[in-house]
Amino acid sequence: MAIPPQPWPTGKVERLEPLVRRVLAANASPFTFTGTQTYIVGGDEGLAVIDPGPVDEDHLVALEQAIGNAPIVAVMCTHTHRDHSPGARPLAERTGAPIVGCAPLALETLGPRADAPFDKDYAPDRVLSEGEQVSGPGWTLTALATPGHTSNHLCFALEGTGALFTGDHVMGWSTTVVAPPDGDMADYMASLDKLQARDDRTYYPAHGPAIGNPKQLVRGMIGHRRQREKQILRLLGKAAQEVGELVPQMYKGVPEFLWPAAAMSVTAHLNDLERRGIVARSGETWQTTN
Predict the structure, then answer these.
(1) pLDDT greater than 50 at residue 277
(2) How far apart are CA 19 and CA 62, in angstroms?
(3) Domain of residue 201, residue span
């Protein structure tokens, strides 16, 4: 999906449904679409803020204005990339709210990253595990463990509404980058299967528009990843190759500045195939085992 023309609703409060509002941060990029979308769940008697985004004073002020005098039950984070969690600490300090959500993660990565680097300063007051909940007046959010994009990724289900906040696990504009060593393709696929088994009405991703056909989209995402796997095996069946040789063949028509991101997902596929005994690595070269 192409990035829509400006102006974008940066800093504006958008009411999506009775319990859900959205505020867009001014951090648009080829990897964040129009920017990180922070969601405000609840009402005047108490609310939660999901993915407060980067440390950006204008965005923090916009969130404070949207919150008004309502008490904040929790500042919640789906994962700890720098376009999602760094705003949690200053927002918590200004409001007195606890930081609740994914586990902390500080990981040194090798090679270029196309997604945002990890927030090493993230320090939650409470870590949520699968099925644990945060509640306020008239609403309850349930954590779903969805590792893959990152090992600590969570989605949050707004009980009784059919709404699911998907962070970067499912986005409304692009496929998700799975970047080793922390990103794991087998985990990502299992997490997609987990969402496919649910009956959510709407996904609210951190980037891109709301998704009104979740099952159809997730089914397509699973199929897309399986096709990528078949494509890798077909190319390696012709000759042993390095990731840098596979990417131009697999991503024809994709701008070259996006190839580093593609290379990460290809590597994640190869790591998964290697664990399953389908491919083997010799140095930087990969080949099939049959």
Answers:
(1) yes
(2) 18
(3) 13-222
